[in-house]
Write a structure and sequence with these properties.
Number of strands: 5
CATH architecture: 2-Layer Sandwich
Strand content: 25-35%
Helix content: 25-40%
Order of helices and strands: EHHEEHEE
Strand order of the largest sheet: 1-2-3-5-4
CATH topology: Heat Shock Protein 90
Length: 139
């Protein structure tokens, strides 16, 4: 499994995202990963991919490289949408009561908590390059 790479390319639409998510689910089920690790990888993928589609507004396909290692999975996203470095995104304040709690707005926070490494670059070619490492075993 170490270093095995897969590439996904999908149009920056909801349907494109759904197809890519289904493909990733199939890839994850082919591996002997714990259910919680598959869930974490899928959650990170979905949060980043849907944010690219909804907020980044890329003009061309989104490219994702998925590399399986013994202890982690590397997800590398590349797109030509608006620049966005998730490391610089502030965490939303926690609700002070149940009435103040809202859905949404916490995806980047989840991604940061589930990833052991996050790298971002806005390339000279005006492309976002985001790399995340997600562990395959809980420590």
């Amino acid at each position: 499994m170490s270093g095995e790479q897969h590439r996904l390319r999908f149009p920056p639409t909801r349907e494109g995202f759904r197809g890519a998510s289904r493909t990733l689910i199939a890839l994850l089920h082919e591996r002997a990963l714990a259910v919680d690790a598959r869930y974490d990888i899928q959650l990170v993928f979905d949060e980043i991919a849907i944010n690219i589609v909804h907020h980044g507004r890329p003009r061309s396909d989104v490219d994702v490289c998925i590399t399986f290692h013994e202890t982690h999975v590397i997800l590398t996203f590349e797109d030509d949408g608006h620049p966005f470095d998730p490391r610089q995104h502030p965490e939303p304040p926690g609700p002070t009561s149940v009435d103040d709690a809202s859905f949404g707005g916490r995806g980047i926070m989840l991604v940061r908590r589930l990833s052991t490494h996050i790298e971002y670059e806005f390339t000279p070619q005006s492309r976002n390059l985001l790399t995340l490492a997600v562990p395959v075993a809980k420590t």
